[in-house]
Amino acid sequence: LVSPSPSSQAMPLVVPTSFTSSLRLVAAICKAPTILAHAGLIRGVEATSFSDDQDDLRRHGVKVQTAPVVETEVNGAPVITANGPQAAFAFGQAIVNSLRGPFDPFDFRL
């Protein structure tokens, strides 16, 4: 695959060909969910992306949501998508929650 942005230099990307339960987490924000969609990795599941790319996701069989952050699973692997920079904080929180569990302000362990 190459970078989906026509204005940037084409950059080769390594994308898994399938999700397995051994994957701990897959996360994509802004235009990055289109890479997953073009690879067929999120076909039939809920996801979000930058608004300009949502029709492209639909064409690739993704159930597009308008929420800033969408959390789902594909073959047991957690997948988190977000729609852009305004969702960055919530996207980060979702990643941390997926890796560590929900935030507890009284838990001082690292």
What would your notes on this structure say?
Strand 2 (about 45), helix 2 and strand 3 form a beta-alpha-beta unit. The N and C termini lie far apart (about 35 Å). The chain contains three helices and five strands, in the order βαβαβββα. The chain has helices at about 30-40, 55-60, 90-100; strands at about 25-30, 45, 65, 70-75, 75-80. It is an alpha/beta fold. The model has no long low-confidence stretch (mean pLDDT about 80).
Contiguous helical run count: 3
Mean pLDDT: 82
Residue fraction in strands? 15-25%
| Biggest β-sheet: strands ordered side by side in the sheet | 1-5-4
Net shape:
globular
Radius of gyration: 14 Å
Oligomer description:
single chain
Please identify the structural class as seen in this structure. Answer: alpha/beta
The run of helices and strands is EHEHEEEH
Quick rundown:
This protein is an alpha/beta fold.
Core attributes:
alpha/beta; single chain; globular; 110 residues; three-stranded mixed sheet; 3 helices; two-stranded parallel sheet
